[in-house]
Amino acid sequence: MVYCADIAQLLLKLGVPQYEPKDWRLFTDSSKRSLKRVLLYNGNQFASIPLAHSSTLKENYEAVKYVLEKIGYDQHKWFICVDLKMVNFLLGQQSGFTKYPCFLCMWDSRDRAQHDTKKDWPVREELVPCKERNVINDPLVDRDRILFPLLHIKLGLIKQFTKALDKDGDCFTYLCQAFPGLTMEKLKAGIFDGPQIRQLIRDSEFGKSMNKVELEAWKAFVLVGILEKMGICHRYSIIRAMCLFIPIMKDSKLIIKDLVFDGVPVRLYWPKTSPAGNRKGIIFLHGGAGVFGSIRTSEMICRSIAHQTDSVVMCAEFRLAPEHPYPVPVLDCLTAAIYFMKNAKEYGVDASCIAIAGESIGGTFTAAICQELVTREDLPRVRAQVLIYPFLQGMDFNLPSYQQNHSVPPMFRKRTVKVGLTYLTGKTMNVDGVLKGAHVPPDLREKCKKWISADNIPEEFKARGYVPVKPAPFSEELYEQVKRGTETMFAPLLAEDDIIRQLPETFILTCEYDGFRDDGLLYKKRLEDNGVPVTWYHVQDGFHGIMGLAGWGPLEFPSTQKCLQSAIQFLKDL
Hints:
The protein has 22 helices and 14 strands. It is α/β, with parallel strands linked by helices. It folds into three domains: 2-147, no CATH class; 150-243, no CATH class; 250-574, Rossmann fold.
C-alpha cells in the first residue's frame, strides 16, 4: 500500500499554506480490486489529495482499519464520505444479509410479517460489539462523522423525478428520444449516470417539454448541482430540493390561495362551507431549523387543521439561512402575522380569536412572536400559542434530554447545534465550545440559572440517565461570535417575567426522544409559575419531527396522528 501520514507537510508541499482538519473531508471507497482514501476540500478551492491506495488489500473491516491507522485518522477526525457498503466496515457491522443491517435503528430485515410495514423500530442507541445485534467489531469512526456522497443522493433524486413523470407526457417522451440506447425499464425507473444527468442539465430544450410542476422540481434539482460546485450549503439545498418533489393534491373541501402579505409569501386555507360568522384564524409556522422546510412540508398539517377546526389557516414562506440568517426568518413570520391580524376581517377571520402555532423552529418563532406582540396595543391580543417540540434556549446543551438523546436521529446533539448556529450566524462553526457552555458569560449564567437548570426538570425525566456537567471556562471570543443567541427572539426562554406573565393560553407538546424536550418542560414551568394556563401533551414514544409526517400514509408513525390530534383538539376548544 502507498500512503502518507504527515498530512500537514504533504499539503504544504502541494501549495496549501495552512491545514485545518475541519476544512477537509475524507472520501473513502473500495472494491474487490482496491482501496483508496482521498482528501477533499470543502468548497473545492483545492484539488483532491490522494492519501492512500492499495491494489492488494481486501475489502473488509481489517483492511479499512489498517488504512485509517496508517494515515492517522484519529489525529484529524475528518468527516468521511462513503457509500452504504463502506458504512458496515466503518461502524463494525456484519456484512451481508443480516437481521439488523441498519446503523440508525433496529429494523429487523427477517421479520417477514412486519419488515416492510412496521414503522416504529427501536432506535439503535449505540454501536458496541454484540453478535445478536449484528455488530461484530468496534466502530472505527463516530457515527455522526459519516456523510453520503452527493452524487448518490442526486441519482436518487433523478429517479424520483422520473418516476413521478406522466409516462404519456411530453417530458418523459423527450427523455426517451434523448437516450434511445436506454431500455424502457431503465427510463421508467429513472436510472441515469452522472454524464447523462449533466447532459440533461445542459439541454435547454428539456425544460420546454415540462409542465409547471415538473419544471419547478427540475429547477430545484439543477440548483443542487450548482450549489454543490460552488461549495455552498450542500445538505440544506438538497433537502430544500427534495421538498419541492412533495406532490400537492387538490382538496375539494378547501379553498387554497397563495398570496403575499407585506412582502412575505403565504398560503391560506379556507373551508368551503359557509360559516355562521367569522372563523377562527390559525397562523402556522413550519419547521426545518431555519435552514430548510417550506409551505409544502406543512401542507398536510395545515389542511387537517383547517378541516377539523373550521378555521382559516395561514402558513408563511419565510426566508431561510444561511443565505438569510437570524433574525430574518423570524421577522418574516412576524411581518406576515401582523398583516394577517390587521386584515383579519378581509379573510373572514374573527380578529379576537387568532392563534399562532409552530412545529420545531416554527414553535420557536411562535413563542418569540407572541412575546413580541404582548406590548402591541394597536393589534388584537393573540388568543393562544401552540408550541410543538420547540427549541427555546441555546445556553445549556447538557440538560438531561440532550444527554439522553445525543445520538437519537434525526437530532444528533452535535449536528443539531451546528445547524442551529448556521441559522444564527449564517456560517458553519466549530461547536465544541458551545456544547461545553464556554459561550455563556458568568453573569448571564448566574441570572438565568433560575430558569434554565436541570433542577427544574421533574425527576422522572432523569431516569434514563443524567450526569451534571460543569461548564467550560468562559470564552470572550466565542461569545462575540454567537452573542445574538441570547436575544429573546432567538431564545424565548430568556424573556423576563413581565413578558412571560402576559402571554396567552398555551399548548406545549414534548417528545421523550427529543433533545428539545427539556426546553419545553422548562418553558411550561415558567408559564405556570407566572399564571399562564398551559395544556401539556407528552409523547412517550415520540421523537423530534414526528408530527411533520402527518398525512403521508405509510410514513406516519403510530404517534404521529396522536400529536396532531392533540393540537387540533386544543385549537377546537378555544
